[in-house]
Every structure is written in C-alpha cells, then in structure tokens.
Amino acid sequence: MISEMPEGIPSGLLAQIRASNTRISCRITTVRVERPRSTMLEIIPRDVGTDSEGWSIGKEEIPVKTLEEGIIVAMEMQARE
User: Fold this and answer.
1) Cβ atoms of 33 and 40 closer than 8 Å
2) Burial class for 7, CB neighbours closer than 10 Å (0-12, 13-18, 19+)
3) Where exactly are the structural domains of the chain?
4) Residues 22, 31: contact at Cβ < 8 Å?
5) Could you tell me the pTM of the whole model?
6) Which of 55, 58, 56 is CA-nearest to residue 78?
7) CB of 22 within 8 A of CB of 76?
8) What is the sign of the dihedral through the CA atoms of 28, 13, 15 and 7?
9) Contact 73, 63 (CB under 8 A)
10) What is the per-residue pLDDT across 1-43, written as a single tens digit (0 to 9) for each?
11) How far apart are CA 27 and CA 72, in angstroms?
12) Half-sphere exposure of residue 64, counting CA atoms within 13 Å on the CB side?
C-alpha cells in the first residue's frame, strides 16, 4: 500500500493542517500560509549557502531551521491572532 503522507512529515501534522482550514501554497521559493480571517504569512529562505541557512517567517523574519518548523510556527502565529 502506498502512503499519501510525504516522507518526514508526521501524519499528525498533516491532520492538523487539514483540520485547520489552512492553505499552503508556493511560488518559486516563497511559501504562503493562508487561513480564513487571519493574516497571510510568507516563509522565505534565509542565509542560503551558509552554515546558518534556514527559513524566515513573516515581516518579523522569525528564523527557523526547517520548512516544516516554519509551517508549524506560522500556523501557531495565525491561531493566536
């Protein structure tokens, strides 16, 4: 049986994203996290090619190491609005 879950993303996270009515889209290197009645947040690469490369969330440029972590933080930020 083939799993629908991408490797590396826990099924609980996918279920949480689906249940939250969150839309995640990507254009080139920018990932957008959108949720009804919440501010849209963008996650962009930071420090590419360096030892400190990772992702930045929103205008505040909150640093995270992985895109998965970035999506979780963005969803938490939207939930607290």
Assistant:
1) yes
2) exposed
3) 23-79
4) no
5) 0.78
6) 58
7) no
8) positive
9) no
10) 444 544 555 667 777 777 788 888 999 999 999 999 899 999 9
11) 19
12) 18
Q: With beta carbons less than 8 A apart as the criterion, state whether 23 and 31 touch.
A: no
Total residues belonging to the chain: 81
Token pair recorded at residue 43:
């996650």
Cα distance between residue 17 and residue 39, in whole Å: 16
Q: What is the pLDDT of residue 11?
A: 66
List % helix, strand, coil for the chain (3-state, nearest 5): 25, 30, 45
SS3 56: strand
Classify strands 23-27 and 54-57 as parallel, antiparallel or unpaired.
unpaired
Beta strands 54-57 and 62-64, pairing class: antiparallel
